[in-house]
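Form 7-S
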Amino acid sequence: MKHNLKPNHLFQCLDEVLAQQSVNPLTLNPQKNVITSFVELENLITTSTTDKEIILALRDSLELIIYAQVQNFPENIFWDFDFILSSMVRQALVADEGAIAFLECFGKKMVLLIELFGIKKEIRFRYVHDFIYGFDWARWVQKEPQTRSNSEPFSLVFLDYLLLKGEKLVKQLNYGQVTSYSLGNTGYRNPFDFSREPEDEHLLLTSLAREKLIPVEAWNWDTSPVWNQPFQEMRQQLALKLNIQPQIHS
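Output:
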């Protein structure tokens, strides 16, 4: 199959994937309603590299990630990809083993991660928001800032940590050892005290974004991730302030 290598055409199929899957591509960017299109993101990629092989590998890895996300997190609300894509480009261009090998490895790990935490396996989280917007990463860095603060939110070392954490959690769930991750009455797990029903999740995250309390502004290609703030506590406080109800368990 010959690929159309004209600018803007390689990534158009990614926008079409979201459209075909009836995804409403909302952004957390307070200035916009919908995400940056993948056609627009392709223009940003070409400011860093014009290597067609790398751009195709980026596209192919992203396509796998998007399909996995749609299938395993069908109720996900916010779909920003700007920063994850800029991170993929940056890491690929400095990868010791080569850009293509890195992108293939990255894509595989991301798909495994999405499948591990999504609705088709035991963990059954409803959204990818805590991962994509850096809440999981900030919590991880805070535990060992001296060794972890230089690791990007989408570095392979952090993806590996999450894969191990997820596999451990699956074992604990299978042995009935985890109580904080009990299934809610909607069939999803919610380790937080507050409700994460779609209207509550939308309200809380858009409020956090407006107040600049998001560790990774994933809608911003050039964002600087922040780990050294008490994001979990601030999120909890804002949930109370917004009168978001406690989580109901089945």
